[in-house]
Specification:
Blueprint: H1 3-21, E1 35-47, E2 53-61, E3 82-85, H2 90-99, E4 103-113, E5 123-130
Parallel strand pairs: 3-5
Antiparallel strand pairs: 1-2, 1-4, 2-3, 4-5
Keywords: Signal
Signal peptide: 1-17
C-alpha cells in the first residue's frame, strides 16, 4: 500500500469531522409572500386559554430560515427549522388534517418567533395559504 493512499485513507474521516464541527451559516431570510416547504406533522396540544381542551396544531420542518427583524434568528444560531401553522378557521384545519405526514408548501404571510408556553415549534406562522404543487 502506498503512503499516499494510506494518508488519504486517514485524512478523509478527519475532513468529514471538521466539516461537521464547522458552524452552520444562518439560513436565508423568509419574507411575507415566500414559500416554505417541508413535511407536515400533526401535534396535539392543550389550550391553556380554553380549559385545557386538546387542539390540533400542525408543524412544518424545513431548512433553517431567518425571520425579518425584530425576530431575527429566534435565539438560534441558524434560524428556526420548525414552523407551527396556526389554522384560523375550520376549512384550514380540515385542509391541514388531510395533508398530515406529506410534503407541502405554504405561502407565508405572517411569521414570528415562538414566545408563549405551548408553542411547540421555533417559529409560528399565523397567516398562510397552501400552495398547490
Amino acid at each position: 500500500m502506498s503512503f499516499a493512499l494510506l494518508a488519504a485513507t486517514f485524512a478523509a474521516p478527519c475532513a468529514i469531522a471538521q466539516q461537521a464541527d464547522a458552524p452552520q451559516k444562518p439560513g436565508k431570510m423568509i419574507h411575507a409572500g415566500d414559500v416554505l416547504s417541508g413535511e407536515l406533522s400533526a401535534m396535539k396540544v392543550r389550550d391553556a386559554k380554553n380549559r385545557g381542551k386538546r387542539v390540533a396544531t400542525y408543524q412544518i420542518t424545513s431548512e433553517p430560515r431567518r425571520l425579518p427583524p425584530p425576530n431575527g434568528l429566534c435565539n438560534l444560531e441558524t434560524g428556526p427549522e420548525t414552523f407551527q401553522l396556526i389554522p384560523t378557521n375550520d376549512a384550514q384545519a380540515a385542509q391541514l388534517k388531510s395533508l398530515s405526514g406529506k410534503e407541502i408548501s405554504v405561502k407565508v404571510d405572517e411569521v414570528a418567533c415562538a414566545k408563549d408556553a405551548g408553542e411547540m415549534s421555533e417559529a409560528i406562522v399565523t397567516k398562510w395559504s397552501v400552495v398547490a404543487k
